[in-house]
Amino acid sequence: MAHIPDGVLAAPTLILGGMMTAGLVVVALRRLTDERLPAAAVLTSAFFVASLIHLPLGPSSVHPLLNGLMGLILGWTAVPAILVALGLQAAFFGFGGLWTLGINTLNMALPALLCSWVFAPWLTKAEGARAWLIGFAAGLSAVLLTGLLVALTLAFNGEPFQPAARLIALLYAPLALVEGILTAIIVGFIQRVAPELLLKETKADGL
Amino acid sequence: MAYRRLAILGIVLVLASPAVLAHKLKLFAQTEGNWIRGRVYFVGGSAAAGTHIEVRDAEGRLLAELTPDTEGRFGYRMQSATTEYQLIASTGDGHRVAQRLTPNPLLADPAQTHAMDPSETASGANPLDPASLMLIEQTLARQTQPLAERLNALEDRILLQDILGGIGYILGLTGFALWWRCRRPQS
């Protein structure tokens, strides 16, 4: 799954992942706005807890990621938010690990950023009824992209790519669907009760 | 107002998580006579049946590859007098867990143990031959296994405190960030 534990990956991947994540966090912190912080806290909490919703699936088990939603609402702030949530998950639940924190954050933050880049501008233009559709697309593509990145990470570390990728595709495809629906519901809900949350994003700090 | 609504949404999301279960892969194994028996499962208890388990000796040489049954249980008959075994379970998609296992030295090589224990040879009073010793060991292991397994599972259980603690940290960090940003312009 998306939380790669310690002991699976080789040092170069860990170092590269850590460095890239550090770079992204620095950029994100520069762009951080005060108004974004409370929303970031709530979404970080949701992300933190979402990993406990466990759906047994074939030989493995999956859980919602919510990184598409984070990218859509938080933009760049999603990067430190995901880092904090993953750090706490490692500390409290033992998911992932300290050494893999960098690469795991990268695998989840990059799709979030892409979602923000691709879908957030659409959200501003979307009339009420269409917002959920964008949410669905964001949730779906973020999970698929995370799956791809995890498969690539494993491939770089000796795990034969094809079986791992096939397994991950198998696992992530249904998860992506669930995640898409979940994100669609949440985005639709936010659109109805607090549309300014979605609109402000693109004006303040879109990519 | 918007944030209060978002906070409510967040709380609803948290409460909606149906079960405090998770997906970390766990391996539990112990020796039972000259068998290694164990179970692979995800934290929360569901069996990890599709796992691939490697048995290696202390130097990392591959001794056997096992596939657990539908309950995640597996067994391996120890053949060599290796003093240490390594069990590595992986699901192929990034879940991986390893455990070292040291079989009871008494069973691995009874003669050697006896020779090293002067008090025993001196007194000459050793009513237990290796066969009955092994039987005792086996029975004991079989009886304590469920207990040990449960203890292990209890240890992994994610408690409500952990969740609340994590959320507390997130809120604390946010508060800290807000405070930091508020004081900067003044200084």
Give descriptors for this structure:
heterodimer; A: 207 residues; mainly alpha; Arp2/3 complex 21 kDa subunit ARPC3; two-stranded antiparallel ribbon; disordered C terminus; B: 187 residues; alpha+beta; four-stranded antiparallel β-sheet; three-stranded antiparallel β-sheet; 6 helices; elongated
Commentary on this structure:
The complex is a heterodimer of chains A (207) and B (187). Chain A has 8 helices and 2 strands, in the order ααββαααααα. Chain A has 207 residues and is mostly helical. Chain A has a single domain (11-205), classed as Arp2/3 complex 21 kDa subunit ARPC3 (Orthogonal Bundle). A two-stranded antiparallel sheet of chain A has the order 1-2. Chain A is globular, with a radius of gyration of 16 Å. Residues 201-207 of chain A have low confidence and may be disordered. With 187 residues, chain B is of the alpha+beta class. Chain B has one domain: Immunoglobulin-like (Sandwich), CATH 2.60.40. Chain B is 44% helix and 24% strand. A 4-stranded antiparallel β-sheet of chain B has the order 4-3-6-7, with no helix packed on it. In chain B, strands 1-2-5 form a 3-stranded antiparallel β-sheet, covered by helices on one side. The longest helix of chain B has 27 residues, at 130-156. Chain B is elongated and about 80 Å long. Classes of the chains: A mainly alpha (207), B alpha+beta (187).
